[in-house]
Amino acid sequence: MNSRMKLLISFFFFAVTAAQLHYYWSKYLHPDFLMDVSRESRLDYLKVFLNKTLTIAEQKEKLRAWAKKNNVTRQVENLFFQVGSKMIEANENLAKMIDAVSKAFKILTKNMKNENQSMPQMKKNIEKLKKEQPTVYNVLSFAMKQVMLEMSKDFLAQSEPRAPAKRRLQRKVYHAHVIYCSTFCHCKPSHNASKNFETHPFDVEL
Question: What is the pTM of this model?
Answer without folding.
Answer: 0.55
